[in-house]
Specification:
This protein has 167 residues and is an alpha+beta fold. 33% of the residues lie in helices and 11% in strands. The chain is globular. The two termini are 29 Å apart. It holds the Pfam family Fer2_2.
């Protein structure tokens, strides 16, 4: 199979039952996306597929030939961080750091959804501009768990990065 990850094409010789997460970690050595629960419940494996959030542990790699896959490694690099990565550092939006790559990638995807005015369960209106209140951000990020409970700092980081065009 051929996958486009972080702007580069990769040919993989992998079993068709290989999850996208295992393809990224085991075949491409992109270990930023973490295997937390391997059941789609924690969000540590979140990547962007064509700009939308996906739990990489729940989808097969072969299903994403032709798609644009972005991992945490594709968002920024040392010395040239993505605005969301900078904001997480500035607001101390991590503790142990295990969930942080998934949180950051999910936050970037979430801001894209909000920019496109996709409502959530916390949205005031179904047909208007999405206001990123604490409740709105928390609802939209509810698929990403943090065992260390850094949630207040994560919300602050996302709110700050949203004003910097982090989506």
């Amino acid at each position: 199979m051929r996958l486009k990850v972080n702007g580069s094409e990769h040919d993989l010789d992998a079993d068709i039952r290989t999850s996208l997460l295992d393809a990224l970690r085991d075949h491409l050595a992109l270990t930023g996306s973490k295997k937390g629960c391997d059941h789609g419940q924690c969000g540590a494996c979140t990547v962007l597929v064509n700009g939308r959030r996906v739990n990489a542990c729940l989808t097969l790699a072969v299903m994403h030939e032709g798609d644009e896959i972005t991992t945490i490694e594709g968002l920024g690099a040392p010395g040239h961080l993505h605005p969301m990565q900078e904001s997480f550092l500035h607001h101390d939006g991590y503790q142990c750091g295990y969930c942080t790559p998934g949180q950051i990638v999910s936050a970037v995807g979430m801001l894209g959804e909000a920019r496109d005015n996709w409502p959530s369960h916390a949205s005031e209106s179904l047909d208007g501009q999405v206001e990123l209140t604490d409740a709105e951000i928390s609802e939209r990020m509810s698929g990403n768990l943090c065992r260390c409970s850094a949630y207040p700092n994560i919300v602050d980081a996302i709110r700050d990065a949203s004003g910097k065009g982090a989506a």
